[in-house]
Amino acid sequence: MSESNQFDVAQSRREYTRGGLRRNDLTEQPLPLFERWLKQACEAKIADPTAMCVSTVDEHGQPYQRIVLLKHYDERGLVFYTNLGSRKAQQLGHNPKISLLFPWHMLDRQVIVLGEAERLSTLEVMKYFTSRPKDSQIAAWVSQQSSRISARGVLEGKFLELKQKFSKGEVPLPTFWGGFRVKVNSMEFWQGGENRLHDRFIYQRLANDDAKDENPQWQIDRLAP
């Protein structure tokens, strides 16, 4: 592409005018504010409001990112599901530290989570798996996530084969399919502001806090844009 035909990304900008975030808007703990923002993202009909960018690091220190859907959240953490043979699962087995990013562009908002991931119990995984549409259950059997395949037809053929196999019964839980709960160590709320004076507040779990405490104590700080 010639230089004259390149899109000038440096000139791509807009003002953020949807309102600010002030300290009196905050809650004592991050989860109620996260829930409020998530509900507002749903009400705004943002495409895939539960979509989050999941960042992990491999054994060589190389970071990886991918979009995954949030499936549950409570005081214990944020939950997502995946193939346990996938790249992300293998990397979390080596290093459980993880980062999540919710990019709610339409509302000029983002939420960044830092924490540690732990495997869900088989009972928790089974409960969610059985709630999925049957075709999604079958797809979990088909895909050896992150493995190399020769063509899409391989997946489609396997899907049709298993769909026929499981047509008259329940789809069993694959042993290689599970989920993770991310215990939140920090949660940052970013709200776009005029003249690039964005509002940022970070909640950080106090270091001496009991990891099993369902009512942890949080330090709240405003960050420069």
Low-confidence stretches: none
Count structural domains.
Answer: 2
| Helix proportion | 10-25%
- Name the CATH superfamily assignment of the largest domain: Electron Transport, Fmn-binding Protein, Chain A
* H-E string: HEEEEHEEHHHEEE
Strand content: 25-35%
Q: Main beta sheet: strand number and arrangement?
A: 9 strands, antiparallel
Q: Mind telling me the CATH class of the largest domain?
A: Mainly Beta
Rg = 21 Å
Structural class per helix/strand content? alpha+beta
How many DSSP-defined strands? 9
| Overall pLDDT score | 91
Approximate shape: globular
Q: If classified by CATH, what would the architecture of the largest domain be? A: Roll
Please, how many helices? 5
Distance between the termini: 35 Å
CATH topology of the largest domain: Pnp Oxidase, Chain A
Give a brief description.
By secondary structure, this protein is α+β, with helices and mostly antiparallel strands.
Give structural notes.
This protein is an alpha+beta fold and 225 residues long. The protein folds into two domains: 16-121 and 181-223, Electron Transport, Fmn-binding Protein, Chain A (Pnp Oxidase, Chain A), CATH 2.30.110; 131-172, no CATH class. Helices cover 24% and strands 32% of the residues. The protein contains five helices and nine strands, in the order αββββαββαααβββ. The protein has helices at 30-43, 87-94, 122-129, 134-142, 152-165, and strands at residues 51-57, 63-69, 72-74, 77-83, 97-104, 109-119, 177-191, 199-205, 218-223. Strands 1, 2, 3, 4, 5, 6, 7, 8 and 9 form a nine-stranded antiparallel β-sheet that branches. Helix 4 (134-142) packs across helix 5 (152-165). The chain is globular, with a radius of gyration of 21 Å. The two termini are 35 Å apart.
